[in-house]
Amino acid sequence: MILVTGGAGFIGANFVLDWLKEPNAEGIINLDKLTYAGNLATLASVKNDPRHLFVQGDIGDRALVAKLLKEHQPRAIVNFAAESHVDRSIHGPADFINTNIVGTFNLLECAREYWNGLQAAQKTNFRFHHVSTDEVYGSLLPTAPAFNETHPYEPNSPYSASKAASDHLVRAWFHTYGFPVVTTNCSNNYGPYHFPEKLIPLVILNAINLKPLPIYGDGQQVRDWLYVGDHCSAIRTVLAKGRLGETYNIGGWNEKANIDVVKSICQILDELKPRADGQSYATQITFVNDRPGHDRRYAIDARKIERELGWRPAETFDTGIKKTVQWYLDNPIWVEGVVSGAYRDWLDKQYS
To answer: Is 306 one of the catalytic residues?
Structure first.
């Protein structure tokens, strides 16, 4: 088996579903705290799959983690568990420190103790895969080269600072203890089952409900966009073939300004679900005050993972965003279940 933490969140749940699509896949112990962004409805299709064991719990609960490791003897840990929304980290950084830094430390220590007790062959084959973000690298000037794996860490938000700290812990456990880690830093993910506080699902759902489409500042913040299915395939590749102690940047080769992403969504919706009045959804675009410390540009140089491990994304932005919009149109029950009263209160607070 493998242990997946944060496996009810957006990327973690997509990874679990992708992993279990293979008929002969190893089983998964799925440990998730089920905060606001964890959603068991995403995992409904594997609820009765004997290869999937869901456990509600915190990576900071060392007794629970140690118990799961002892009972199930996983050959790898894939750590998705994190607080991950920049806006929420600005309003309440404490949860980000507790989960992303202290939680990662506790998980590393439990895993190291477990690893030290393994027999020689199991010990050699064990892996700890830490999933991180490109935001740890800071912000790029418009003409600067994309982030590579040796780019200095310059985090600018409580979220990215907490993820940078967790990356440093993982690196230190490899160099100090010889603990077998790999780290991946990904660009902005999008795709099915995305919690609708992030830009793409927020815009899709606001558009079809004829609500304003809020754009921070001038909308010229640039991000590299990675389809979540491609991210899952990259993690599988690194877990299988990545060199110990190494970092691999995972990107989609799709740099887009936020305003262009929103306009693309509007064009797709104009085609797939036209407004009754015949107007474009783009008329709903509304510019709002920029958030504090908003990084201007991220871009990922993903040549290392392609050169060393042979991975490259399968989706372009055009193909991936159309799949994503169609998924939200086809899954209103999932959407209705996730859009709770607490979530609406958060949107009112953030974009008022």
So the answer is: no
